[in-house]
Design brief:
binds zinc ion; globular; seven-stranded mixed β-sheet
Length: about 450
Amino acid sequence: MEITILGAGRCVTGSKYLIKWKKRSTLVDCGLFQGPASHRQLNWKPLPHPAHDIDSVVLTHAHIDHSGYLPRLCRQGFSGPVYCTPPTLGLLRVLLPDAAYIQEEEARYANRKGYSKHKPALPLFKMKDAREALKKLQPVSFDTWQELHPGARFRFHRQGHILGAAAVELDSKSRGGERKNLYFSGDVGRYGVPILKEPEAYPGSDVLFVESTYGNRNHPAEDARSLLADEVRAGLDRGGVIIIPAFAVDRTQELLYLLHESMVENEIPQIPIWLDSPMGIEATTLYTRNTAEHDVEMRQYFSEQVNPIFPPTLRVTPTSSESRKLNGIDGGAIIISASGMATGGRILHHLKLRLPDPKNTVIFVGYQANGTKGRRLVEGESEIKIHGEWIPVRAAVRQVSGLSAHADADELIMWLSRREKDPSTVCVIHGEYDVQQEFATRLSEEFGWQPIIPDLGDTIQV
Ligand SMILES: [Zn+2]
């Protein structure tokens, strides 16, 4: 068996690992490259292995950098099953059509305004490709073995990163009867954060693929809720509107949970919160409904008939005409919109409108990847290009960094520490290269491992 790194090798997006047996092949994750143009261009490159020859896909979770290449894979002739957990399936029904919509919309907008280098600008995939991908989804419950082909099977383990997120344990038997098991961490979630159950500890395996997004640092020890409440109060003092770019899935729900608690504890006043993200609204419903994934505190709230991710002052704006009405608000309100790194979606319209006015506040609540507008804004750039137009940045741009769906360095070590067996091969994936090098050093110091950091296109023989 051999595994080829087709994404998230020395970078944080595009997760795709192709496992090839003699006659079969499976893709673990099928993500889009995001961030800088040099990465996004990789989405246009043909796969080194024909899509119609890939037998199946196994998804760790619904995030687009792990699932968003599916429509393009289908467009290239992939026709096998796509396995995922039931909550991931629910999220993908929302996320994939939205990704297609953004692709088509951006291409249309670029063509209308004539700012694309490519004429005409094309979408990476279309709505019909996303629908095709959705037809291939097959739900597999957590902790249940699913056969891929005779001699190879996998199961999902809860990873707590977002709703439905899993690690993939893949077990394969060679002709000689020797078994090997591979463990893909997917994105590791955090311990002690609201809403979802905690990650299940890594049990040990022959081969380990471990993510390393935060492999060289820890999240601040300060309480994220009080940091957020401080920024919200400061934003209200400035007198304008508070814009919070947030990923529709997970970050938005965690944010709503914390804002709800801050209001209950009188840390912030009861102000209107507008959730201006159709996807965020649907994800909030899915988070509410998937009660089997809720942690103890969340269940306690529900037993008291309180939904902490739907605070009483929350208003939602699913349609674009409702969204446009938010432009008339001039202060004393929070607008949460996607995307979280300001790479696309309705948030761009809010930023375009609100950034030039020093009364307004923009609060980023998560990791901002290299090359994104979010990164440029938190690094203090004085103007920023949105839809081809230069916008002056006079609003206060703040960052609350305690909120993250990713385990930090210590949590990754904790997640790995309860194993019953040491892996003989460790691949550090899904991280920026300098971070990965530091994390690999830490793994060898803590556990005596000799991790490798595979690059895009590298193959590992098992
Ligand atoms: Zn993720």
